[in-house]
Input
Amino acid sequence: NGVIAFDFLYFRIKERTLGLSGALLLPSLLFYYLLDKLGITDRYALNKRIYGRISGWNSRSLESSAIRFFENEITKKLFPEMLKILHTHKKEHHKVIIVTSALREIVSPISKWVKIDDVIATEVGVSNGVYNGAIKALPVGKNRIVVIRKYCKKNSIDMKKSYAYSDHYSDIPMLEGIGNPAAANPDRRLRKYAEKNGWKIIK
Output
């Protein structure tokens, strides 16, 4: 539930591990968060701006914090109905992949608690354990389906037979590009679009 990157940011503030560079960036990040919630900005451009400004952050420290974050917040962040669906997919021997705009270092530790096969996430270049600001992958907005297509082609996955779930209207292009789309606990705009197109809605 919510934008996991910002939930993680709030967690780091609470545990006082944000650091000076993060603290200086905080006002801008909160402003970007507000723009996203109001839906008045392009998510791809927003995330590109955010991740372009994390130069100097320690990637290892971020991953360590992510482990503590999930240890404390995992039950709050996972939509119960989606866990049931995930379990069903695993029983069917489907490959389960998380696709997120959050940094890979933030999301990867979730595999300790949830059975997934892979993660497609934002990747920012790292030099000597420190982010250098070079964005290598950004699966968000209209670009998300582009990244997914490349992944599926590389791994011989039939997108027409695949399933996709999302709660945010910005993922409509992704959902339209997958054979079995579903809106999971969707925001108002996605719910309306899903109802119009006869997509499954998970509450």
In short: The first strand starts at residue 97 and ends at 103.
